Amino acid sequence: MNNKIVEFIIWAQKNGWDIVEKSSLQFNLDHSIISRYKEIPHDYLDFLSRIEKCVAPNEMTWFICENEFNNRSDIAFKWNEYELLSLEAAMDDDSWRAEITTWWNNYMPIVMSVDGGYSFYAIDVTNDKGAIVRGYEPEFEEVEKVSNTLEEFFDLMMSSAIEGNSKS
User: Fold this and answer.
1) Is the pLDDT of residue 11 over 70?
2) Contact 76, 45 (CB under 8 A)
3) What are the two backbone dihedrals, phi and then psi, of residue 145, each rounded to the nearest 5 degrees?
4) Is 167 domain-assigned?
5) In this predicted structure, what is the pLDDT of residue 41?
6) What CATH code is carried by the domain that includes residue 106?
7) Does residue 145 sit in helix, strand or coil?
8) What would the pLDDT profile of 50-107 be if each residue is shown by its tens digit?
9) Does the pLDDT value for residue 167 go beyond 50?
10) Closest to 52 in 3D by CA, of 30, 31, 24
């Protein structure tokens, strides 16, 4: 297992996150996820194979895990909720809808938040593979890069340099 994942799990547990580790290392992502995101970085797959649930203490920020991707979660938001909101805003503008879908095909959401507004973190699976970006409402598809790798992202969370680590 990736040592940074272990370090993050320990940190999250010590900081009040609701984190549930899987009893086995097996996982099965829905075919629609695998076919949409053909090159999911191995470190994120490693994380998904180890973690069943990872929710911030204030319950307003959470990692999207296997159950969310497979639509078997009790979380009110779908794993692609922000994409769905953007598509709803595009209404009948087929060109805009196509742009939105294409954008989300390149960025796999990994963390969602409703803390102070809707925001997310996603992994770039196409252009800058493995980089983590952050997007906010109302223009979810206008993002800023926050790290080059998932390991760097975990470091930023553990050092309080980015959102998601409060004990609210």
Assistant:
1) yes
2) no
3) -75, 130
4) no
5) 94
6) 3.40.1580
7) strand
8) 999 999 999 999 999 999 999 988 888 999 999 999 999 999 999 999 999 999 999 9
9) no
10) 24
The range of the structural domain enclosing residue 151 comes to 3-66+77-158
CA-CA distance, 116 to 137, in Å (whole number)? 10
Q: What pLDDT does 43 receive?
A: 93
CB of 164 within 8 A of CB of 16?
no
Long-range contacts of 5-9 (CB under 8 A, 24+ apart): 5/43, 5/46, 5/47, 5/50, 5/154, 7/154, 7/158, 8/154, 8/157, 8/158, 9/50, 9/51
Number of domains in the chain: 1
Residue type, 82: Y
For residue 150, give every residue at least 6 positions away whose Cβ sits within 8 Å of its Cβ, in sequence order, or none.
Answer: 4, 41, 43, 44, 47, 123, 130, 132
- pLDDT tens readout for residues 109-136: 999 999 999 999 999 999 999 999 999 9
Token pair in block for residue 121:
């973190």
**In 3-state terms, what secondary structure has residue 141?**
coil
Task: Tokens for 108, please give them.
Answer: 């796999």
- Amino acid code (one letter) for 83: E
